[in-house]
C-alpha cells in the first residue's frame, strides 16, 4: 500500500532534456525543441550554438516562451498532489480503523480472560485456553 505513494512518473514532455528536471520556464528553440530557459541559456553561454537534442546548428539563437506548457505542468502537478493527498488520507484512515479493531480485540481478550478466570477459577495460560475452548463450544 505504501508503494501507492511512490512518486508518479512525470510526463517526458514536462522534463527539460538538459537537466532532466520538470520545467518551470520552458522556452522553444527554432528547431522546435523545448528547454528550461536557464539551462538553454547556460548551454549558449558555454559557446554551443546547436540544439542539444538534435545537434542541429541553430540559424536563430532566440528563445520563444512556451506559454501553454507551464499551465499544463502546473495542472498535472496539482492533480497528482490531490491524488497523493487523498491516498495518504485513506491510508491514515485505514490504519486508524485497524488500530481501533486491534484495541477492541485486546479489550475483548482481557474481558474474556476475566470471565474465564471468574467462571472456572483457572489461573494459568493453559487452563485459560482450555476454558476458552469450552466457552467457544458452549456459545456455538
Automatic annotation (TrEMBL):
Pfam families of this UniProt entry? U-box (PF04564)
Q: What class of enzyme is it?
A: transferase
The protein's superkingdom reads Eukaryota
* Record's keyword terms, sorted: Transferase, Ubl conjugation pathway
The GO terms describing molecular function are: ubiquitin protein ligase activity
Q: What is its EC number?
A: 2.3.2.27
Can you state which reaction this protein catalyses? Answer: S-ubiquitinyl-[E2 ubiquitin-conjugating enzyme]-L-cysteine + [acceptor protein]-L-lysine = [E2 ubiquitin-conjugating enzyme]-L-cysteine + N(6)-ubiquitinyl-[acceptor protein]-L-lysine
What InterPro entries would the database entry show? Answer: PUB22/23/24-like (IPR045185), RING-Ubox_PUB (IPR045210), Ubox_domain (IPR003613), Znf_RING/FYVE/PHD (IPR013083)
Annotated metabolic or biological route of this protein: Protein modification; protein ubiquitination
Cite the U-box domain residue spans from the record: 9-83
Offer one example of a GO biological process linked to this entry: protein ubiquitination
As for what it does, the entry says: Functions as an E3 ubiquitin ligase.
Query: What is the protein name stated in its UniProt record?
Result: U-box domain-containing protein
**What organism is this sequence from?**
Helianthus annuus (Common sunflower)
Amino acid at each position: 500500500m505504501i508503494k501507492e505513494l511512490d512518486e508518479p512518473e512525470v510526463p517526458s514532455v514536462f522534463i527539460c532534456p538538459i537537466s532532466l528536471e520538470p520545467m518551470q520556464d520552458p522556452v522553444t528553440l527554432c528547431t522546435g525543441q523545448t528547454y528550461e530557459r536557464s539551462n538553454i541559456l547556460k548551454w549558449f553561454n558555454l559557446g554551443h550554438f546547436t540544439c542539444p537534442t538534435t545537434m542541429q546548428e541553430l540559424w536563430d539563437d532566440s528563445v520563444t516562451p512556451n506559454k501553454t506548457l507551464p499551465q499544463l505542468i502546473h495542472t498535472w502537478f496539482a492533480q497528482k498532489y490531490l491524488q497523493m493527498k487523498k491516498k495518504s488520507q485513506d491510508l491514515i484512515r485505514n490504519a486508524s480503523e485497524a488500530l481501533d479493531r486491534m484495541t477492541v480485540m485486546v479489550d475483548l481478550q482481557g474481558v474474556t480472560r476475566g470471565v474465564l478466570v471468574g467462571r472456572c477459577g483457572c489461573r494459568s495460560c493453559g487452563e485459560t485456553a482450555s476454558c476458552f475452548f469450552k466457552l467457544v463450544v458452549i456459545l456455538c
